[in-house]
Amino acid sequence: MSRSRARRAFPLAVVLLAVSVAASANMPGSERHAQRPMEKESFRAGWLDRAAPEFALKDLQGRTVRLADFRGKLILVNFWFSTCMPCRQETPALIQLYGLYRERGLVVLGFNMDELVFPPEQRGYLDGFLRTFKVPYPILSVDMKTWKDFGSPPVQPTSFLIDRAGKVAEVFWGAFPGAAFERAVKPRLASPPAAKPALPGPGAPAPPATGAQRRS
User: 3-24+36-191, superfamily in CATH?
Assistant: First the structure.
């Protein structure tokens, strides 16, 4: 990361570090569940039944991973960064969820934001995280474009459940216990892909018009 990119990322780091504290509101025992309800519901409602954004991101081995690689699967995309405490609270639940349902078609993708949040000399945070949590699912390094394509989620963690047809079926704003993920995942694993095409996500470019549409 260049110095200019590091300077651009720093304000994002400050914002995410501040708002991630509120993301633990959904965890058991929290009394802050009513924080930012309008913003949360507006963000969630704007994504439901919309097409998930395409992405092409590098995993920890440098391989490119794309949304199209998992066509027909149920995909849980989890935005997080290594020093986010609610993210760390949630990780064991995601590991367990993946272990329970991967053979039935569930994919979990960890969208790690460390390159956006921290200067390059602090990349050791991810190494420390992985020493603590033995994450079995792919971890992908998120770029600014992908973060924006997913609506610039202001709270970390934020997770998107993408159904077998490529539509956003649920948005988890903040950290959630495993039971909440299971309630969303289990019925959708049993469902075949929907035939109806998804609408573009918020801010996504509209699909090109067909010849018939252009003539009408």
Answer: Glutaredoxin (3.40.30.10)
Q: What's the pLDDT tens digit per position in 125-159? A: 999 999 999 999 999 999 999 999 999 999 999 99
Mean pLDDT for all residues in the chain: 81
Q: Which of 36, 9, 216 is nearest to 116 (CA)?
A: 9
37-67 exposure pattern, b = at least 16 Cβ within 10 A, e = fewer: eeebeebbeebeebbbbebebeeeeeeebeb
DSSP label of 50:
B
Global confidence as pTM: 0.77
> What pLDDT sits at residue 203?
54
Spatial distance between the Cα atoms of 97 and 89, rounded to a whole number of angstroms: 14
Distance, CA of 201 to CA of 47 (rounded, Å): 6
d(CA 155, CA 152) in angstroms, rounded, equals 9
Pick from 176, 161, 154: nearest CA to 24: 176
Distances (CA, A) of 192 to 47, 77, 105, 131, 166: 21, 20, 11, 38, 12
DSSP conformation letters of 96-142: HHHHHHGGGTEEEEEEE-HHHHS-GGGTHHHHHHHHHS---S-EEEP
pLDDT, tens digit, for every residue of 184-211?
A: 999 999 876 555 545 555 655 444 443 4
What is the residue extent of each domain of the chain?
3-24+36-191
What is the model's pLDDT at position 190? 87
* Measured distance CA(81)–CA(156) in Å, rounded: 8
